[in-house]
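Predict the 3D structure for this chain.
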Amino acid sequence: MKKESILYSVTPFDPYGHKVLVRLTLRNPEPSGQSFSLPAWIPGSYLIRDFSRQIETIQASSRGKPVGIRKTSNHTWQCDPCESTLELEYTVYAWDLSVRGAHVDETHAFLNGTSIFLCPAGREQEACHVDICPPPHARNWKVYTSLAEAAGHPRGARRHGFGMYAAPNYDALIDHPIEMGTPQVLRFKAHGAEHEMVFTGVAPNLDLKRIAADVQKICAAQIALFEPQTKQAPFLDSASRYVFMTMVTGDGYGGLEHRASTALMASRRDLPVIGQDKTGEGYQTFLGLVSHEYFHTWNVKRIKPAVFAPYDLSRENHTRLLWVFEGFTSYYDDLMLLRSGVIGESDYLRLLAKTIGSVQRASGRFKQSVAESSFDAWTRYYKQDENSPNALVSYYTKGALVALGLDITIRHASAGRHSLDDVMRLMWERYGRDFYNGAGAGIDEDAMAGLIHEATGVDVRDFIERHAYGREDVPLERLLPLQGISISWRPVSDNPTLDMRLRNSHGETQIATVYEGGAAHRGGLSAGDVLVAVDGLKVGDSAGFDRLLAAYQPGDTVIVHVFRRDELRAFDLVLNAPLASECVLEPASAVGKHS
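Done. Predicted structure below.
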């Protein structure tokens, strides 16, 4: 058998020290000196992560003799010329408990390719082989990944086994994360396509049967949305199955999409246990996360903005279209819970109302459009601070409302003949279905209005200009009644307010955000201040602060003592009336029934 041109071996050799050993063997290196690079960011998480900082040691050799290697930039290395096969050996520190990096201990190993696989320059399109090796003294560990087993290879891995895996190119290699260990596992099929869910971490009495039944419905509904005739799963172009990899923690939440898998973090209290029949809000949150990341299998992993086709992993890739790729996905994630039957209408409208309320509470929507927010993701959205609610808008949440507004507008203008579903299917057929089969095209920055018109016959140029590229609120008070849904607002509390967000930290109540124009802002309080007393009475935790305010009326003046750094300060503040910031939607049978 012909030797592999690019071969990696990966071993979590020091679980207690959280270290991974990677060996890279490269045949026919560049004669003038081969260079290598590690991605600066991971697709789906729009921030320069500098993964290369976790490479602790690196050395190169050829035919057993050392080859000089030096770092030439934050993310690149240059080897001296050599005449034969080049071998790199390097160690990676893996202690990032997130969906973006690598995490290794004695219980498991989770590896994102962007954290561990150096890319040989000029060889990005060549096939890669990966020998996944167990850590020392591993007992009963298995491998869970959507990477293809290297069929026919002498060390070709069996399903879930250690051994050789393969990817057609570097982009594919880093888009199939690897989980090793002894997780809880469930399996199901959706329209004939295999799916696995693995749960790492302590999750006693986990109701795997219920999770499998609910997630199967969600996956089947999404496959049918994009492929109503064939019911063909999208990931079969690159993998034989789809893998959900969930890290269970005390309070974790998050997800990151890949072409045939997703990495999730979930709080164990959000997961159902055997004997618990009610679908609580925590479990709905988890199912919404699953739905969101699975929808990305189409929308952003295959349907992409043009600037992502291909990615430039050495620097920021700016696009103004994340309101489409994240916002539309955020609209459909909860909607697919409804359409699949895992939640009812009233629960769906509660989730939608929560999204509407979160957008309305942030005054940053008047300063930034979702198109601007998309472009600024790298420097602003992913680098939020205490003032962000006053300065930013979320392309996730307001993007979801733009999608909702477009959907209702299309339905109404076409007398129910078309919807946003038709737009998604057109984008899938034109840009997504054959993306990894050589098409490789993406959506141009100014193409959305034209695509929507082509798919539905409805002119939405003015709507997009106002609500996506402009800063106007989506007119939901006018649009929702067209779907038979009433919208109203009610105070979140009967207490007067100082218009700020609090957090409990080490037994103290600290101001997290001061909302612009509110009572705290006018009175001089700032984010980071620690609340001490109101009119001489100790604050305690945030609930205690609310109890103190309950004794007053809007318009009353109170003296608030705070510590700012280590200095005691006093401020006179005039209390505001309760904010009418909780959105209420009345259930209606017209929601979500078109497909």
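The first strand starts at residue 6 and ends at 14.
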